[in-house]
Design goal:
Structural class: alpha+beta
CATH architecture of one domain: Orthogonal Bundle
Order of helices and strands: EEHHHHHHHHHEEHHHHHHHEHHEEEHE
Oligomer: single chain
CATH topology of one domain: Hypothetical protein af1432
CATH superfamily of one domain: Hypothetical protein af1432
Number of helices: 19
Radius of gyration: 23 Å
Helix content: 40-55%
Length: about 425
């Protein structure tokens, strides 16, 4: 590890000044893999509903690292031993945790590449950067992969109350203007402790954790799973799926040279590990690349691709209905048949315009890494044992069904 003569300062909209305390961090931030995150929006197409939400994965990654700095400082005050080497590794692990995100973040995670999570691609980029920076990321990779002996380090990077979630709730609330998501980040960090190598929240912080979980639930239903966001993002998914279908059937459509290989091929995780230049090619993809193609696709001969592209560009989104029970297949078939006649398309092509799926959110995942509460008597218990709001498994999970279709067929209902 080596120190720069002068710390670099970044002025963040949410937290103010963020100090880059190590030259290695500064070099990672300046690397092209990380700079790409400036061109990937944090909330996909949510800016079609919340005009202010144009913030990026770049900002989120820096904010998460800042919170990790604050947490390390706080834990050290409580006599928790975290070496300088571990501190640097923790900050790098959270800084790079989202580096594998594709265009529009989660919206296209399973579209451009199939069945590969952004976490897996992030790990591949971290390993690649480790080679570039002479194995200085070994410890960060072990923490990110949950292979380090101090397991609570992994909890700070990935858990139900990690730095990632603390930042995105605070940041997304700020940029969308949805005040319900504004959480007391400093209070939560101040309530953190480590006992028996477990990350715990001190008993007096229970209400802060409950507020955090409620805020996350409200942000899901008001922002991340807002019905218009769902409609827009599924339209975007359908556009990319249609483009892939056409290219793989040898239709000639416009594509940038960067996106074309991902339309032609269904790359797997094995491909990313074994193909020398695939990570480099993926690193060239961003929101701008997709928008460039969609603008051109507005004029394609294929009715499905051109109509969906025009609808996104002009914000003429599919109508969406949400309810607690499944939608009648008869209604879906009726709308599909009407679309076939009106648009002069096949049943399969009409299915790009009318579709139904399930959405759900689990406020507190009892079966996963738990939120440990340190009672005043030094006993450690799960949050469900001391919270009146999160003791019932059923109340934590909420699922709904949605149906999307063109607005012009609203009279069918």
């Amino acid at each position: 590890m080596y120190k720069d003569k002068k710390d670099k300062i970044i002025n963040d909209t949410v937290y103010g000044f963020i100090c880059l305390e190590d030259n290695l961090i500064n070099e990672l931030i300046n690397h092209k893999y990380f700079q790409r995150l400036r061109r990937i929006t944090q909330l996909g197409l949510a800016n079609l509903i919340y005009p202010g939400s144009n913030h990026t994965r770049f900002q989120h990654a820096l904010g998460s690292m800042f919170l990790m700095q604050r947490t390390i400082e706080h834990l050290r005050k409580k006599k928790i031993t975290i070496t300088e080497k571990e501190s640097l590794a923790l900050k790098i692990a959270i800084l790079l945790h989202d580096i594998g995100h594709g265009p529009f973040s989660h919206a296209l995670e399973k579209t451009i590449v199939k069945n590969i999570s952004h976490e897996k691609i992030s790990l591949l980029y971290m390993q690649k950067l480790n080679q570039i920076f002479n194995n200085k990321l070994n410890l960060s990779i072990n923490i990110f992969s949950n292979k380090y002996s101090k397991k609570y380090f992994y909890n700070l990077v990935s858990s139900q109350i990690d730095m990632d979630r603390l930042d995105y709730l605070k940041r997304d609330s700020f940029y969308t203007g949805v005040s319900e998501g504004n959480i007391g980040v400093e209070r939560i960090i101040n309530m953190m402790n480590v006992v028996d190598e477990k990350l715990v929240i001190e008993e007096k912080g229970i209400h802060s954790i409950e507020k955090f979980l409620f805020a996350r639930r409200l942000m899901y239903w008001q922002v991340y799973l807002h019905k218009t966001v769902i409609s827009a993002e599924h339209m975007l998914i359908n556009i990319l799926n249609r483009a892939k279908e056409l290219v793989q059937q040898k239709y000639l459509i416009y594509s940038t040279p960067t996106l074309l290989p991902f339309l032609k091929n269904n790359y797997t995780y094995k491909d990313f590990k074994n193909k020398v230049n695939l990570l480099e090619e993926f690193a060239l993809l961003d929101d701008y690349e997709i928008y460039t193609c969609i603008k051109q696709w507005c004029n394609e001969q294929d009715k499905v691709l051109s109509k969906l592209s025009n609808m996104i560009i002009n914000r003429n989104l599919l109508k969406i209905k949400i309810q607690d029970k499944k939608f009648s297949s008869k209604i879906i078939e009726k709308i599909n048949f009407t679309i076939q006649k009106k648009y002069n398309v096949s049943y399969k092509e009409a299915s790009y315009f009318v579709f139904t799926k399930k959405i759900s959110h689990n406020t507190y995942k009892i079966d996963e890494e738990k939120i440990n509460i340190l009672l005043n008597n030094r006993k450690i218990v799960d949050l469900t044992k001391v919270s009146d709001h999160f003791s019932n498994r059923k109340t934590n999970i909420k699922q709904k069904y949605f149906l999307c279709y063109p607005k012009e067929f609203n009279n069918i209902f």
